[in-house]
Amino acid sequence: MAYPEARMRRLRQLESLRALVRETSVEVSDLIYPLFVIEGRAVKSEISAMPGIYQLSPDRLAVEVNEIARLGIPGVILFGIPKSKDEMGTGAYDPRGIVQKAIRVIKKETPDLLVVTDVCLCEYTSHGHCGVIVDGCVDNDRSLPLLAKMAVSHAEAGADMVAPSDMMDGRVRAIRQALDDQGFTQLPILSYAAKYASAFYGPFREAAQSAPQFGDRRSYQMDPPNAREAMREVQLDVDEGADIVMVKPALAYLDVIRQVRDRFDLPVAAYNVSGEYSMLKAAVKNGWLEERRAVTEVLTAIKRAGADVVVTYHAKEFAAWVGNRGSGR
Q: Is 248 a catalytic residue?
């Protein structure tokens, strides 16, 4: 059938028709909200490059997580900013560390809120890299026991899922074995399986105070031009025991999300990262974009590419917009 018999506009005339045939929707239940927790008391410090996003001390978490739960957002992912840092990132696996404190606060306040923890040393090392430095380079194999120890400490504090983001080879296997050895056989792993060395992480490094003090992370994070390599990375993490695999960033890598979705049967997550958030916020501030439509379109694109789960700083505002309907339709 062709024009004039076929008229594609027929199903676009009314919002009720558009909603009826809409192929992709974003649900609040698809979203995870990042939280930055910092040592201290009465701290609520806005991140200059990320309007509306804050560093929070543990005593300010109760109000925050109750709001998140009230909005229907199912979970948060925690990033910690310790009081002090050292070469080995010991604050990452300290039972009294900042993330471990935050987990306990959140679980006491909102027991049903899913608590995911970022597992990486970069926020805790004095050099800002994601592993142990030996002779000026990140030593992959010496970093694995520390990452595994960090994951176990999060599990012991009450985390519901751990999310290794360091991009060390073999870290999913090391974490899975350590969790199982300590009796946490039911604790899932959300692996940052295809994490690219992206320019879009800049605002995050301010938020988490995790910028490398020398060099960069291109020796262990993925090279942006590579997509076939991402399939190998994901396959390795699946083989090592990942329960969910993630692509990071999201918007510049929608093609990679689609390839992962088409090739693997595991749930797929995508991280709508800080730079993506900050660009949109800047455009809105300048009156160049309509915020609600732009945010909804971005989240829809990530879902349409194949993501089941979206980690996004827009989660709270999106949930407030859609209200009890819980959908971006």
A: yes
